[in-house]
Write a structure and sequence with these properties.
This protein has helices at about 1-30, 35-45, 45-55, 55-75, 85-100, 105-115, 120-145, 155-180, 185-200. By secondary structure, it is an all-alpha fold.
């Protein structure tokens, strides 16, 4: 049993090491200019170790994107925010915009990933992390605000579409922050807040 855990821990450590190295190199040099040899060398591991865990550089990029989403999730979990749906949506959105102000993150998450993985696959990863949670918060907000007071489920599709609208808006505002810099974070956050409150008032 202990051997099994040890092997699992070594595997997790190796993967984390390679993901960290890939994320750093992709950020510094760009995805297209980084090779698997570069990643292996930077991580202190072998090319064989990389190919043991991933089919190639594109597959590794998928896990780098998941790593960025995971970092955002940790930031959101650490937020000191009241347990109300609209404030939670607002602060979570702001955390995303703050993350987009980091040029390395913006380049990887908003430019390289959709270009390399394709829009649909990139969107699926984004929805895997955020859509279900956003729908639940939207449904809570709609019940609290009287839009669906009985919680009948009749508005489930409406809640899903509202959640998609909010996530889509955040993506485009994130692009705005990425292209124009950290000085636009405040105005982007204000725009998101205006949209959020208008949809869920």
């Amino acid at each position: 049993m202990s051997t099994h855990r040890s092997n699992a821990e070594r595997t997790a450590s190796t993967r984390a090491q390679l993901i960290r190295a890939a994320r750093q190199l992709f950020s510094e040099h760009g995805y297209s200019s980084t090779t698997v040899v570069d990643i292996a060398k930077s991580s202190g591991l072998t090319v064989g170790a990389l190919y043991h865990h991933w089919a190639g550089k594109e597959a590794l990029l998928v896990d780098v994107v998941h790593d960025i989403h995971g970092e955002l999730a940790v930031r959101i979990q650490a937020l000191d925010v009241e347990d109300q749906p609209v404030p939670r949506l607002l602060r979570s959105g702001q955390a995303f915009l703050d993350l987009c102000a980091d040029p390395a993150v913006a380049q990887l998450l908003l430019l390289d990933a959709p270009a390399v993985l394709g829009y649909e696959r990139w969107r699926q990863i984004d929805e895997q992390w955020w859509l279900t949670t956003t729908i639940r918060l939207v449904e809570r907000a709609r019940r609290t605000g009287g839009t669906d007071p009985a919680g009948t489920g009749a508005g489930t599709e409406a809640s899903r579409q509202l959640a998609l609208a909010l996530l889509g808006a955040l993506t485009y505002l994130g692009h705005e922050v990425a292209m124009k810099g950290a000085s636009t974070v405040v105005s982007a956050g204000q725009t998101y807040e205006a949209l959020l409150t208008s949809l869920l008032r």
